[in-house]
Amino acid sequence: MIAAYSRAPASGVRIRTFLTITAAVLTDCLTAIPRHMTDRMFLVNDAEAYWRGWQIIKIHGGLGRRYRDPAFDTLAACSQCAGAGQGIEDMPCITCFGTGRLYNESNERLEGGVS
Fold this sequence. Notes:
With about 120 residues, the chain is α+β, with helices and mostly antiparallel strands. The protein has two domains: about 60 residues; about 45 residues, no CATH class. Helix content is about 35%, strand content about 15%. The chain is built from two helices and four strands, in the order H-H-E-E-E-E. It has a two-stranded antiparallel ribbon with strand order 1-2. A two-stranded antiparallel sheet has the order 3-4. The longest helix is centred in the first third of the chain and has 31 residues. It is rod-shaped and about 90 Å long. The N and C termini lie far apart (about 70 Å).
């Protein structure tokens, strides 16, 4: 039986691998600093948004936040007044009570919903 011997990688390959791994770890650590700072900065706002059931969307690479209430998925423009809230002779629309929006209580997304 012939045994297969493998040589250890050359020292240049080991050094290059070490430097590549070190650079990746260092880059990861340095990019985490602003992320952790902004997470701490938005901690109160994120907690309130979570409490209210809002969606929290991180923007600008995690340096900003956008909060969105999913209840807006249940709103749509009133088809009677085309979302204006006014009916005939500048009176409030009867269908939407002058708001210009209709609410779907079954939580199904209405066609043409507001976002």
